[in-house]
Structure formats: C-alpha cells, structure tokens
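Support request, please re-run this one:
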Amino acid sequence: MGRPGRNFVMERLAGLREELGADIVIANAENAAGGAGITKKIADQLLAAGIDAITLGDHVWDQKNFENEIIELEKVCRPANLPENNPGRKYLIVERDGFRLGIFTVLGRNYLGLKASCPFQAADTKLAELNGKCDAVFVEAHMEATSEKIALGWHLEGRTCAVIGTHTHVATADGRILPGGTAYLSDAGMCGPHDSVLGRNKQEVISTFLDGMKRRFPVASDDVWINGCLIDVAADTGRALRLERIGIAKPRE
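Re-run finished. Output below.
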C-alpha cells in the first residue's frame, strides 16, 4: 500500500524469506503506486527485491500507460476474468527446484465496479488450461464480499493448493486447510501503514464519513506492517499441509 508499504517490503523481504524458508513469494501489488495501481518501474523494484510473482486487482489500470507497460512484465499477471481484449498475462507459472506453481487472480462481482466475467467459471477455465503445466495452483480471490470468497474456496476445494483473499486490506483470522487440501484465508491483509483507514490518512476519511463530501485520501505513513501468510505445500500431491498468518511490524523510530 503506497511507498510506506513497498519500502518496508523491499527492506525486509530478503531476510524474511530466509527466516521463513519461503521458496516462492507472491504479492498483490495493485496499490503500490500512491495507493492506486502500479507502474513498471515499481514492479521492477519489487521483483528485484525478491518477489517472484505479482498479482493485481480492480486498480490494475489506475496508473497512466500501464496498459502498455504490463505487456513487458513477465512476472506480473492481471485478473484472469477481465475482458479478453485487456492486455497482460492471465496467469503465471513459477518454478522452484523442479516444482511448478501456477498462479492467477479472479475478481469478484459483488461491490466491485470493474467489468469482469464470472470468477467461478473463469477459475474453472484457468484450471483446465493449467492442467499438466504445473504441479499445484494458487488462486487469489480479489473480492469485497467474504461470502463470495468463501464460496470460491469451497468451489475450488481439492483442486488448488490455496485460495487466498485480498482487496479489503484487513487480515482475517479464518485461515484453515479445507478437507481436500486447499489452504483458505478470506484476506491476507495489507502491507502498509496501519495508523490509517485502509492505508489512507484517518482524518480525511473520517471527515468524508461525517459530511459526505469528496476528498483526496493521501496514503498514511505510520505503524507500517507486513501482512500475509505462509503456506506449506506437499511437492508430490500439490496439497496444502499448513497455513500460518504472518504479521510483522516495522520498528517505530
């Protein structure tokens, strides 16, 4: 979420990756540029810092000219259920030590304005397309409604190693391994300033709730956290064995 979030991620990622023993790092970075969208320059910086795959969401086209830049980014994918004429990759495959992980995002259709097809059908289509190309599939549910996320988790249960929610910026406590070996979490949370309202300066947001007037919501700066989750996947079956929530605070100066 904005400069505070991405700077802390870039500062801590190498050590955190070693500490956790993480083989593959996936990040939703759709709020990396000023809290809305991403640029090629920022994507390159995040990838250079050790992120293996970048996913996006409903803010995918917020930054000017990114529809042209995304074509050059081989480790960045846009939501798979956007219209076919949208540029960018619909999925990624990351290989580590012979293990191939397929990755894609689907947008929800409840309370999100971006035009998207049915995420359930799109996920089915992508799983069929990835069959034989990878050893496990990680699905990001970029959705507002928890009911839609949970329903997608059960729809893909036993067919993916994980269905992990994003978009609300608030980490949830419902992480579990579904019976078929799919790790599920409604929202991985936000990497960014938590002395805020979803990463934005508190006072402007509160004022708008009070009087209904539109304002600019600058990105906040204090109490920066890295939030996410760690998933162990069995290389032989592609099923999740363990899910652990991650929350790391930046030391206060």
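The chain has six helices and twelve strands. Residues 2-20 form the longest helix (19 residues).
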